[in-house]
Amino acid sequence: xxxxxxxxxxxxxxxxxxxxxxxxxxxxxxxxxxxxxxxxxxxxxxxxxxxxxxxxxxxxxxxxxxxxxxxxxxxxxxxxxxxxxxxxxxxxxxxxxxxxxxxxxxxxxxxxxxxxxxxxxxxxxxxxxxxxxxxxxxxxxxxxxxxxxxxxxxxxxxxxxxxxxxxxxxxxxxxxxxxxxxxxxxxxxxxxxxxxxxxxxxxxxxxxxxxxxxxxxxxxxxxxxxxxxxxxxxxxxxxxxxxxxxxxxxxxxxxxxxxxxxxxxxxxxxxxxxxxxxxxxxxxxxxxx
Length: 289
Known about the structure:
Elements: H1 2-10, H2 18-22, E1 29-32, H3 45-54, E2 58-65, E3 71-73, E4 85-86, H4 102-105, E5 108-109, H5 132-139, E6 145-150, H6 162-175, E7 182-186, H7 189-198, E8 203-206, H8 216-222, E9 227-230, H9 237-245, E10 249-254, H10 258-267, E11 271-274, H11 277-286
Parallel strand pairs: 1-2, 1-11, 2-6, 6-7, 7-8, 8-9, 9-10, 10-11
Antiparallel strand pairs: 2-3, 4-5
Helix pairs in contact: 6-7
């Protein structure tokens, strides 16, 4: 917490505009995927604290909805027993989050263990799934940007109305005055369309659009989005420039190695997604152009 207070104290009072920053062709925004899941427990406050301390400019996180219609920051719609353990004596067990009340969801330790795909992650025993409200409250006085994803459960995990989901997110963002610093992303484009109808001030980002190669601009207009993620395997520098010249924020897929970071920077991506913000920031400092 002391580190966070120091960051807040030194932060500039004027918050950066997402698209203005994204317009700098040689300086991609560093996005900490799940807060930097190769370094710290994914989607937790310790991860977000660490990412900000490193210099990451955007925090990426996932959101699911509980049984009592509360938002919680977590990637999996069902509590993942691989790395989330019930608090001793809590009486809870892993299951669909849509079937659990928020008070019970908060009884899981998701910082002592990690997924196999994040072997270098440092444990933080006792780290809980935060709410977006807690995330926004903690970092609204820093210059950091927010990139939140709506995670829809599978039919067996429960049902969530996409409009209701978007309303919950919009209310949390608006409560903290972060409409200009938050982008909503999703594979379920219904939530993006709902957000545009509810509050068009909040930007939206298409995930999973790579199959629409050559038709990205019409697709973005159709869904009222100003951002999309693209893999370096399905695009080139000319296409990225065309999109950016049209005012689109173009974000890489998740890349965790120097070769991938170099490719995406050379493509002219607006931002680079990574589980290793420390490595990416070091790379950009070594290779500024």
